Automatic annotation (TrEMBL):
GO terms for biological process: gluconeogenesis. It holds the Pfam family HMGL-like. One of its GO terms (cellular component) is cytoplasm. InterPro entries: Aldolase_TIM, Carboxylase_cons_dom, PCB-like, PYR_CT. This is Carboxylase.
Amino acid sequence: MLLELFPLVAKGYLEGKRKVEFEAKREANKKAIAADRSKIKRTAQLKIRDLTLRDGQQSLFATRVPQHEIEKVLPFYKDAKFYAMEVWGGAIPDSVMRYLNEDPWYRLESIKEVIGDVSYLTALSRGRNLFGYSPYPESVIEGFNKNAVKSGLGIMRIFDCLNDVKNMETTIKYIKEAGGIADCAVCYTVDPKFTRKQRIQAVLSGKKLPKKIFDVDYFLNKAKQMEALGADMISVKDMAGLIPPSLSGQIIKRLKKEVKVPIDFHTHCTPGYGLGAVLMAIINGVDIVDTNILNFAGGPAAPAFEIIQIFADKLGLDTGVDLDAVVKINAELKGIRERIAEFDSYKMFPREFDITADYLPADIDALFDKAIVLAKADKEAELLEVCNAIDVWFNFPAPNEEVKAAEIPGGMYTNMLAQLKGLGLEDLLPTVLKKVPEVRVAAGCPPLVTPSSQIIGVQAVNYVLDVNSGKAPYTNVNNQFYNLVKGEYGETPIDIDPDYRQKICGQREATAYDVSKYKAPENLTLEEFGGVKLAQNEKEMLLLELFPTVALPYLKNLRAEAYYNEQAEIEEQKQREAAERRAAFDGMTAEQKEEKVLKALYNFEWLSAQESSEIKQPEWKVSKLDQKTIDMLNREKPKSTLGD
């Protein structure tokens, strides 16, 4: 009725009234939900490692969140009190220089300055390869880890693309010596899957295909080796999201039984296993799980913290996280995601959900209870169905069925597709996918993790392209595949056939990488910028060694900017001094000005100080009578007839 009688006035009044009612209801909900949570009897702890600022943005937005956006959420992260925050390593150091023109060391140091000791800051590195493809000498490994801890790092997650524990030994040593925590990651991977035709061909050729390699015992033995080397904690790192829930539970159960250090579980949601696998890890006693906050979760990223918190509440587990702070972080993340939309491949935002003020619908809440029952009963198929329904309600991307069927990392899949599309041969992708297991087994069956997944993927494409163009297989061998087969990456899970190594590398025996061949990049002197050095301290020199092609232009730009700023400052100083002289001159009396001008006129630079002092300056002045005459003549001067 009010809208009909007074449409303009009533609309504003009613909207305001509804808003007040809505806020009042939310406030009541918050109090009720907080009261319910306070009644939960929490019998154990579940620590949370938040991945949002590193793995989250890398998985979803190509690592394009700039420093000024990061700074917006840090005060809330300090209040949130996560056990750990992954903020560095991976693609961060490369990307912030390459795309954002920012200092990777500053990123870490600035986060530490705000977070302090509230949460451990964590990073990811590839053992003795750090961020590259070839091993580095110990001086570089020591320098990097020492400076990382000095800059604020608390935990270094160390992995090797072959799960060759020897490649992790020096990083474990140096990170612990620097006062950091060594988190050693066992990379999860699947056994190669062969078609029936491939198996028949293998039998006919007399070459047996390998039996199961990557079983629970394999991962357990790797974890024990890492613990023996001094690992402070062990992570099961499922970078492709390929670990199904039942196997996740089995691995965690064995690790908790036979390994003494804390266990962390890390996975992604790409093929649709993520949420179920994390729940099974929790049910089987994992100490820490990796999550992202809602607006940076799901799809290729890790499961959402908010969903895991709901499970923790129902299981009586204490995460120690301040949920009010999480709500504030999530609100900021939405804005950040909107501002970097050009890098958002999904552009699919999750449902608006405030974990402190929103109740789940009864049917969705029942799904959480059902998932726990199914996980405890280890009913994987039904558990996945329920967890996928939860993901659908939260509006996360559907499972990637192509990646799930191929059982390879999503990044590997997209890289191969991009390689073929660039040649206009994307129709060959199914053939390449069938060839991946064969190429992988021939190369020693490396786990499919960066960079070995990319190496195998590129070579599988090359193999198919060779055959498709009528050439012999392995006519084109990429350099990194050559080095992998040669033995420079380390020990592969199964032995490489010497005949195959001879075919690829021209030698039958494996050869380890010779670190003595390492040559540090030259620290150039930049004459054009005042003769300064390109890298001006140890941290910058490390950037140059670890990321030579990216750090060189980045550091050169820094030096150029500093040089031009310095020159501008010098010019500004000159201008200030000139302005001060002008002001001083303007403040003089006429006699003082006249005296100063005359002195300047007789200041002959080619004369000595003695000769200059001997010159007698004239004492000429304009008399008052002369000035009166001049004024009179000016008044009597004929006026111009021309216009202005």
